[in-house]
């Protein structure tokens, strides 16, 4: 907790200093970060691995039904997502990722790159090494990270209310033990089952604008006690009791 507070204070100081010096919009990063540090300002037309890293963190800030690609290309959709991220956190919404945007991201992530309100342990209650699923362990873990950043966006949009994850990654053995579908996205590491509050319908409705292409909730068979969100190549939403 102390580390997170310290990071927030540092981010505020760096932003304030930059504003006083009039350099925020044009200089490089605000400060180095334990997880990942951007070394340049990014805007539409840029490309590279640093764009991909940015896309992972803003992919939850999209329009209803939209999915942001992790392709390393800073196009119109990435610009729009950055604008929504900036607006959500009270930053100038110009779609350009510079020191202010990076400082906010740095404040939102832990040293292992997970967002501050979620952890790998929450997304994997099956085993310790992410093995045994439909994809290699490293891929499953990477997919879980992308899911967490979408959940972070969703959490903030809901008023920074805690979200409870009852199930995330599953190996085939874990999936079979709970009676999961043989094609479940849990096997890929990009799914999360949400319970508790806000209501399951509120969760299903909100998930539509945070990059989830698979949303299953109340009214869908075996989903009356949780809302399921995932990234499915074949988009499918069904929560009949929630108007979805």
In words, what does this structure look like?
This protein has 8 helices and 5 strands. Helices cover 38% and strands 8% of the residues. With 244 residues, it is α+β, with helices and mostly antiparallel strands. The longest helix is centred in the middle third of the chain and has 21 residues, at 137-157. Strands 1-2-4-3-5 form a 5-stranded mixed β-sheet, covered by helices on one side. It has helices at residues 2-21, 49-58, 76-88, 99-108, 120-123, 137-157, 172-177, 200-207; strands at residues 164-167, 191-195, 214-216, 227-230, 236-238. It is globular, with a radius of gyration of 18 Å.
How many helices does DSSP assign? 8
Category from helices, strands and their pairing: alpha+beta
What amount of the residues lies in strands?
5-15%
Which residues form runs of ≥5 with pLDDT under 50?
Answer: 1-30
Taking the sheet with the most strands, its summary is: 5 strands, mixed
Cα distance, first to last residue? 38 Å
- Fraction of helical residues: 25-40%
- Spatial shape: globular
Order of strands in the sheet with most strands: 1-2-4-3-5
Number of strands: 5
Keywords, separated by commas or semicolons:
single chain; 244 residues; alpha+beta; globular; disordered N terminus
Please summarize what this structure is.
The chain has helices at residues 2-21, 49-58, 76-88, 99-108, 120-123, 137-157, 172-177, 200-207; strands at residues 164-167, 191-195, 214-216, 227-230, 236-238. By secondary structure, the chain is an alpha+beta fold. The model is unreliable at 1-30 (pLDDT under 50).
């Amino acid at each position: 907790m102390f580390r997170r507070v310290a990071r927030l204070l540092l981010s505020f100081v760096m932003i304030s200093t930059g504003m006083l010096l009039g350099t925020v919009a044009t200089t490089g990063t605000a400060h180095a970060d334990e997880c990942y540090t951007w070394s340049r300002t990014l805007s539409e037309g840029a490309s590279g691995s640093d764009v991909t890293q940015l896309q992972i963190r803003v992919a939850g800030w999209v329009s209803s039904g939209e999915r942001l690609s992790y392709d390393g290309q800073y196009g119109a959709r990435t610009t729009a997502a950055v604008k929504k991220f900036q607006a959500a956190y009270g930053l100038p919404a110009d779609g350009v990722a510079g020191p202010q945007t990076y400082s906010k991201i740095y404040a939102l992530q832990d040293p292992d790159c997970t967002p501050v309100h979620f952890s790998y342990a929450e997304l994997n209650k099956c085993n310790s090494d992410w093995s045994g699923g439909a994809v290699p362990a490293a891929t499953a873990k990477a997919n879980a990270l992308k899911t967490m950043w979408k959940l972070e966006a969703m959490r903030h949009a809901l008023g920074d209310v805690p979200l409870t994850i009852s199930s995330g990654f599953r190996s085939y053995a874990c999936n079979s033990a709970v009676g999961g579908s043989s094609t479940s996205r849990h096997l890929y590491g990009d799914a999360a089952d949400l319970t508790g509050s806000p209501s399951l319908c509120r969760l299903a409705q909100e998930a539509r604008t945070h990059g989830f292409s698979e949303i299953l909730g109340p009214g869908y068979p075996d989903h009356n006690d949780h809302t399921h969100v995932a990234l499915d190549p074949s988009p499918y939403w069904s929560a009949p009791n929630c108007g979805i």
